[in-house]
Every structure is written in structure tokens, then in C-alpha cells.
Amino acid sequence: MSQDNSISLNKYISSKGICSRREADRWIEEGRLKINGQLAKKGNRVSPGDEVLLDGKALPKAPKKLYIAFHKPAGVTCTTDRRDRSNIVDFIGHKERIFPIGRLDKPSTGLILLTNDGDMVNPILRVENGHEKEYIVTVDKPINRRFLQRMAGGLPILGQITKKAQVEQLGPKRFRIILKQGLNRQIRRMCEYLGYEVRTLKRVRIMNIELDQLPKGQWRELSAQELKNLEKQL
Q: Is 116 in the same domain as 181?
């Protein structure tokens, strides 16, 4: 077979809608995959006609690709681990196997995207791509211009300085912030650094996808126009 027709093994697995490429790499490392009877290794490629087995079984046919916007309530965990009783997959209960793109803290609410398309995950999450994510945040005490300037200018958390952000005051204790990165608990850590505690945190936009009027706990598929605009940005 021509090497030109081959694709990387992790991409081949993720195209089946059963996991992301990162998870596929973990399965390869765990020795769960074989190509034409040979134990697979990271970096292997798959050509048309190759037999790929996971745990000794053929992979499923690739399903229709799904892209879902979900309004996550507080208390739902952004994990596919079914042992976690608050996992997002069981909460949504979709008939297809889907997984979240990124995460929101368990106490946070708002927009999160889910898909069965493993190729979509990395381009959205990759920090260097600088994709915007917009949040509405309420803190425990009144904010001032100095707070807004420091939040916007970059703060030292997790051993680095956060990238510059757009910040706008919406009320005495409420503000909007647009980030181009997604460090672990970033907004909460930034507020804590300035002596504030986050009371509510809601994500209202990821790139061109807006939460809009989607009710809490509900989901919808992305529209054709949303997908077209999303793919342009990626």
C-alpha cells in the first residue's frame, strides 16, 4: 500500500468516535492495539486494508460526526469516567459515545462542547492557537479599576504569568473576562491571587459558539453555520 494513503494510528482510532487522540495514545502504550497481528507502537500508521484490533476486537465503523453545545450545571464533572457518578456523559445520556472538549470545574456552569470527533479536540484546546473563551464571574466583594487592570494585564499563577485578557465590569461584584488560554482553574486562581473568592463562574462563549438562551442542563447540536465558522477558525 502507498504510504501516501496511510494515517497515524491515533488519528485512525479517534476517527471511529470512541476516544480522543490523546486517549488513543494511552491505549497504544498500554499494549491494547494490534495492526495486522503485530503489537502496535506510537507512531505506527494505518493503510487501507490493514486490520486494527482493540483488545482483540475490530474497531466499530465510524459514526456520523456529532458536535454538541451543552449548558453544564454546577455539580456535573467533565469526565468520561463512568465510575464518577456525576460524570457529564451519563448526565447527557446521548446514544452515541461522546466526550467533552476541555473541561469546566465541577462548581462552574455554562458552555462546554462535546463531540465524537477526536480530530476536533486538539485544534480547539491548543494554547498557541489563542482561541477566545468568554466568562461571566461574580466574586465575594466589590471590585475596582485596579482589580480589572490586574486581571487584564497578567498574573503569576502555576509558575507562569497569565496572558493578557479582556476584562469588563458588569456590576459591583460582577465582571466579564475573555481568555485566550485555559490553565487549570485559571480564573479562580487569578481572583484568589488578588484576594477575591469566586462565587459564580459561567462560560458563555467558546470561539464563535455562544451559550445564548440554551437552558441549564440542556444540549443542542451545532448548526451548519456554526460548524463552518468554527472550522474556518481552526
A: no
Its domain, for residue 51, covers 3-58
212 is catalytic: no
Q: What is the pLDDT of residue 88?
A: 97
- Looking at the fold, whether 16 and 115 belong to one and the same domain comes out as no
pTM of the model: 0.78
Residues 112 and 220 in one domain: yes
Q: Are residues 219 and 175 in the same domain?
A: no
Q: In whole angstroms, what is the distance from residue 164 CA to residue 178 CA?
A: 9
Q: Highest-confidence range of 13-27, 93-107, 202-216, by mean pLDDT?
A: 202-216
Q: For Cα atoms 121, 125, 127, give the angle at the middle one, nearest 5 degrees.
A: 150
Q: Which of 105, 119, 140, 212 is catalytic?
A: 105
Q: Residue 35 in contact with residue 52, Cβ under 8 Å?
A: yes
Looking up residue 14, the CATH number of its domain turns out to be: 3.10.290.10
Reported as a single tens digit per residue, the pLDDT across 127-158 is: 667 789 999 999 999 999 999 999 999 999 99
